[in-house]
Amino acid sequence: MTCVMVPGGEIEGFSEHGNLCFLSVPYAAPVTRERRFLAPQPVEPWRGVRDATRLGPVCPQVPTYGPVGRGATSSLTQGTDFLTLNIRTPSLDGRAPVLVWVHGGGYAVGSANEPVLQSGAFAASGIVEVTVNYRLGALGFLHIDGMPDNRGLLDLLAALRWVKDNIERFGGDPDRVTFAGRSAGGFAIAAVMAMPGAKGLFSRAMPQSGASTAIAGMDDARKLTRRMCTALGTDEAGIMDAPIDALLVAQRDLCNESYEQHDYDRDGSAAMLGVPFVPVIDGVSLLEHPEAAAAAGRTMPVPMMIGCTSAEYLTHSTILPDDLDFAGAARFLHERVRPLGWTGQGIVDTYRKALSDHSPHGIWRAVAGDLVFQNPTTRFALLHGRHQPVWKYLYGPVLPDETGAAHGAEVGAVWYRRGMDPTEQPERQRVTDIAFAEKVHEVWRAFIAGDPLPHAWPRFTEKMKVVLHMAEGAIEPAPDRFAERLGLWQRP
């Protein structure tokens, strides 16, 4: 056993696969009923040595968001003491580069404690890896007058400050921190990059399958608060006093309603994604949309690696009827594209001209995938790239009818530890091509470490829209096949 002194007291970790591991280390106080809607509070000291050899509780949550959300929902023990970090390091000595990873789950489900993130892959590659738990759903993102907005993001800032102040004790370099995440984790990275409070807390950014889509204005945030009040049969004060089980049921019902019945008038811009609990432009912690900040050079001045899978909406499309026709695709898309001034029929007609070989399911996957993932990723890459180096990747084969690599398909490879038995990974994230997985992991490692990037990967710019394409065992630079689709959304 190995002990380290941190704010709050001494923690005891353990050794695994040649790494030193410290699990569920608190970076803020427990989220008790009284603290649910406050900014993260300082760590509470403990007596003796705190056991950091076991994973602790995760943020309270219930399944939502259809098949994708159910797959991301954590089945682990829930509780209040979940503002914690899982730290794995190759050594307590030295100053190794650091990875701080934010999990996905539509800002409502998931955790940093999920099995795929426990491989120790980056620690085995010489990087101090840190995975973060934070407040989700209403706890993290519901607007309540008098309470700080964006509590989930404030948690992430608190975690980054903890890392900045303490990671040297774990052999990490506080001046070489890469802030990374996938899906909602990627959305969170982009949002935090636009927050003034993030200044100086990380030196590289890596939004993965998520950029700048999930952001609400204050009017939309207040609409969600009214919906929550109605669901609970109370006012805002009642929300703060509601039992956690009732709060989670109301949260689930609102999430499912937004995800399954998109409604622009009801949800505002959240109708595009169908995820209602998102960061809010509150004028305090988040002053502007990340894309506006990037355009003006006000995002964090750090190099960025960003990208998507080749069929982001493949799994999402399993909710569609088998007999979907183009008119049906237009109906399902209509409310989602209204925030951008389109009708469902108009965008389907536009895509059918550009992608004439696509079926109705393929058109729906193309439009929805571009709306939520591909286009925001391209825009954010181009805007941030005006001021800082940006590299863009694409994971998975580009196959007919948008049937390539689904959302999250790269996670198993990114977190593959050299020499591990793939059966140690969860079945849905298990790699089948070990040599390819090792190559993919090396791309991530090189960026985090600040080493020369492999495969002569060029920067992504307006004049050179080239991605690093990772598919079918090969990795090589290639023209970005999705960047040109931005033009399809230009109003005639």
UniProtKB/TrEMBL annotation:
PANTHER family per UniProt: CARBOXYLESTERASE
InterPro entries: AB_hydrolase_fold (IPR029058), CarbesteraseB (IPR002018), Type-B_Carboxylest/Lipase (IPR050309)
Origin superkingdom: Bacteria
Protein's name in the database: Carboxylesterase
Domain spans labelled Carboxylesterase type B: 3-472
